[in-house]
Amino acid sequence: MIEFKNFLLNAQAKVVNNTTSLPWPRTQDLETLYEINHVMFMTSREVYENQKNRIGNNPFLYVMNKVKSYDIDWEDDFKIAEMIYEKHYRL
Question: Does this model's pTM top 0.85?
Answer without folding.
Answer: no
